Amino acid sequence: MNGTQSAVVGAGAATTGTAVASEAGAAEATRIVFGTDGWRAKTADDYTFANVRRCAQAVAEYVIARGEQTRGIVIAYDRRFASEHFAAAAAEVILAHDIPIALASQAVPTQMSSFEVVQRHSAAGIVITASHNPWTDNGFKVKSPTGAAGGPEMLADIEARIAAGAGRTIESRPIADAEAAGLVERYDPFDAYRTFIGRNLDLDRLRAADVDLLVDPLYGSGATWIPRLLQGGRIRITELHSERNPYFGGVNPEPIPPNVDEALRTIAQGRYDLGLLLDGDADRSGAADERGTFITTLQIYALLMYYLVEHRGLREPVVKTVNETSMAERLGERYGVDVYEVPVGFKYVGPKMIETGAMMGGEESGGFGFGMHLPERDGIFTDLMLLDLFLCEKEAGRWPASRAIAHLHEIAGPSSYRRVDVHFDRAVYPELKDRLLVELPQKAPTELAGRPVVRTQTLTTNDGFKFFADDGSWLLIRFSGTEPLVRVYTEAASVAAVDANLSVGEAIVRGA
What we know:
Number of domains: 3
Structural class: alpha/beta
CATH superfamily of the largest domain: Alpha-D-Glucose-1,6-Bisphosphate, subunit A, domain 3
Number of strands: 23
């Protein structure tokens, strides 16, 4: 398939009048729960048109209950299998309530829905995407009026409405009929987004850079965006995997090794100065230096924080998730910046950014938001910020990129990091999670890489535990909120210590 996406078409509804979609009344309705970043499930198993309509119905009811239906709802979708048709199904349910919609004319990065919600002062946003999940999955994200991910209260309300409506008939209005009535506006956000980010980034400066850049969007909806934003200048850009491929080349579209190994090998051949990476829906970012060495997401957080305080002179607070780097606190002490910690998920990061007036928020999975931009993840804006950072460091004599990273560690301290995902069968995962949450504290490690464990932290969301050694290194064991797996994370001063800590954490999880 080509990179250009076709416009959304109807998903089985009639071409005129009001259609009615019925739930399978006799069958038990799927329990739909929004995790750290939306609801996700296996396509054609739990992720069905009927369940997408249930989600859309609940969002419509939520908006109506708040008296905000005239503000409308923004709908977008990614490049996954049938995403445009699932988006159409959601749109037709919203339209049955006479709520106007702004509908993406093609697959767009997830953050473009956040951008459109803010620009249009919409009541909510809906995005059909499973982000970096396996290609077999799809998902349903909800955006708040601020453009941030729907917060816990908003999502709890929507979940309750989904559950309460199980088995009920859901009305659906054909898009063509609603479009004729003036309820549908199709949008392409590129031009407005380029103008928007130009307020905070000097795109002409980036275009003029004498740099060879490799971009890998992992076949996702961020394909062509960075080259188009930077075209017409001196910078030389090569983009891998631009075409639509719902199989994502056989890897999970998460911009970390081994999924990005082809990009890393390409950079290591010596032609490129920097690599910029995106996930499947382009709201998460990644990077590699001139040697093809992957820059960890924890390093990226610290690099961005350093960039904002050192090169932009900002001193507003920052927000990080519990699985983010301890370099944030060290930089905070150095520059006089407050650091706030929240549970995993941008549904916690975004609201905390708004509450504290933060200049930046980020999470371990590569999602970063900025107070000057959006309180939501934007992989494209983040990658461009990283490019600007390295150009600033180049002007300061710290080039190539690996030298700039070494300078970061000189002021923020050493940091090695890695994560291991331990997968479990989806059917037994809920029961296993309940059992492990009881057993894991009983099997807590007494030391990490030879250093005594001095503190154990139970996550406030009750989905894991974090163990701290006396030198500040840590091990985190946490249940994913979007997939049937347990994540084991660690940050320490050396690669050897990281390997030792991961062995301990993985043994605890597998042994339990």
